[in-house]
Amino acid sequence: MSERGTELMSKALAQLDEARGLLAEAHDSDLHRPYVDREGDHSANSVGNAALHFVEGYQKIGRLLKGAGYVSASLTGETVQGNGHRHDHDHEAEITDVLKGLDAAKVRLTLLADLTDAQLDSIPPMKNQWADGERTLLTVLDVIIAHQAGHLASLGDALG
């Protein structure tokens, strides 16, 4: 357990709480609204698809920790298959689906507090869009969480 891991967890959980607050006030019809990503890197055409993608971002953290051997599969509740996506971008979400996904992600994110300083300072052995073989785990996780903040802001714009 490390202070830096706890800080990462706190940042991510605050984002999830904010997203839950936004979405708990929304209706299923709000998920059909058009979505424009502030960062311009997401192809979702509706708020619902963007919300599912937002949830997926936190699931990526669990898969990264599992795939790189930092935690066991039983702790993440994940199985890695295909391209790693757990949602269908063409499927319209319902509020209850998104809220369940946020709650599940919240449980997985508690794993961040259990990471040691040595783990956070290590370079993940796997490579993907986040882990490039040079960044430390701390940096990779921080970048993912920052990326999620951009999606959260865009969701706020769309639902506001």
Structure overview:
This protein is mainly α. It has helices spanning 3-24, 47-67, 73-76, 95-109, 117-121, 137-159. Helices cover 56% and strands 0% of the residues. It starts with a helix and ends with a helix. It is elongated and about 45 Å long. The chain has a single domain (3-159), classed as Up-down Bundle (Four Helix Bundle (Hemerythrin (Met), subunit A)), CATH 1.20.120.450. Helix 1 (3-24) runs antiparallel to helix 4 and helix 2 (47-67) runs antiparallel to helix 6.
Radius of gyration: 15 Å
Q: Helices and strands: which structural class?
A: mainly alpha
CATH class: Mainly Alpha
Which CATH architecture would you pick?
Up-down Bundle
Question: Which topology does CATH recognise?
Answer: Four Helix Bundle (Hemerythrin (Met), subunit A)
Major beta-sheet overview: none
**Uncertain segments of ≥5 residues (pLDDT<50)?**
78-89
Strands, total number:
0
Number of helical segments with 4 or more residues: 6
Return the domain count.
1
**Strand percentage, roughly?**
under 5%
* Helix residue percentage: 55-70%
What is the name of the CATH superfamily?
dinb family like domain
Average pLDDT, rounded to a whole number, is: 85
Approximate shape: elongated
Element pattern in H and E: HHHHHH
Measure the end-to-end span: 38 Å
